[in-house]
Amino acid sequence: MAAMRLLHVIIILLLLLPAALLLVVVTEAQLSQGFYNATCPNLESLVRSAVHAKFQQTFVTAPATLRLFFHDCFVRGCDASVILASPTNDAEKDHPDNLSLAGDGFDTVIKAKAAVDADPSCRNKVSCADILALATRDVVSLSGGPSYEVELGRRDGRISTKASVQRQLPQPGFNLDQLIQIFAFHSLSLSLTDILALSGSHTLGFSHCKQFAKRIYRFNKTTTIDPTLNPSYALQLRKMCPLNVDPTVVVSMDPTGPQTFDNAYFKNLQQGKGLFSSDQVLFSDPRSRPTVDLFAATQSAFNDAFVAAITKMGRVGVLTGTQGEIRQDCTRVNQLFN
Question: What is the pLDDT at residue 244?
Fold first, then answer.
């Protein structure tokens, strides 16, 4: 009898195995490049047109949107939760680490969402999370970087809190081990090459002086300036960021070509011109230096690695199927409309 019961269990398990395998396949294929082909065939052109119009108004659109995507995916996954507003100022965007997110990034997504929903065939069918992913690709391309296919099918999250941001974002003073640890998302770990490629996005954008002031004024008890920082560059930074500087003053992350998505970031690291400690450590640490040298020497190698890395990042913690929702307004969950 025991043998018969065991055989019965084995048969049931074998019958269930194809369904289990199918579930795995479906889970891995939740995002796809042609997700909206039938429901919103003009999606990419609608988003691209809106992003281009915003880009022509101000270049800040590019780094602001790219940074918004990173900050969204780092916390709770790529679900556009960073865009949600809170009447009590308790959303992700209200956390101190997110207060420096430029408004142009938020505005880019909101305007692209409006353009998409103005098309009757697309209205309320495309998530803010997917629009942010598409807009990120478009600002990279508009800045001279690579264009690439974007996997789609994300749903929007309904939860956004300050508390969820705590210790989730990379910090300017991180060493390589800390960067590796924080980039190890969920069960999808990004490789060291991925980390360097994504760090290369610092070829665009800017930073407030307070983020790197310690490197040029009070590095430690015995050294005023960080010894890994190029001395002439440090003096240049001091001129732009004197002590007690206006907190609104910003400095370009890339001192040579801050409006072009290229491999100059890695060439700067070779010269000791990484603005953050977390930038310069990529060249200082022997584990990552060979990749810095490769990307500095070959633009195409950086481009290919960046596309692979940002595609991986876009899969982190996504909501799909019946999870989450498709927001009518990117700044509010749908229940507030009822």
Answer: 86
Q: Residues forming the annotated binding site?
A: 72, 75, 77, 79, 81, 92, 170, 202-203, 254, 262
**Residue-range definition of the domain harbouring residue 92:** 43-169+315-337
The 3-state DSSP composition of the chain as helix, strand, coil percent (nearest 5) reads 55, 5, 40
CB-based contacts of 200, cutoff 8 Å, min separation 6? 263, 265, 266, 295, 302, 306
Element (H, E) at 221: none
**For the domain that residue 293 is a member of, what is the CATH number?**
1.10.420.10
β-pair partners for 185: 188
- Residues 20-39: pLDDT tens digits? 333 333 333 489 999 999 99
Indicate if 157 and 264 belong to the same structural domain.
no
Beta bridge partners of 208: 250
Say yes or no: 325 and 236 in one domain. no
* Residues tagged in the binding site annotation for Ca(2+): 72, 75, 77, 79, 81, 92, 203, 254, 262
How high does pLDDT run on average in the chain?
Answer: 89
Binding residues for heme b: 202
Torsion of Cα atoms, 203 then 209 then 210 then 212, to 10°: 50
- pTM listed for this prediction: 0.89
User: Which residue in 8, 52, 71, 95 is the catalytic one?
Assistant: 71
Active site residue 95: no
What pLDDT does 221 receive?
A: 76
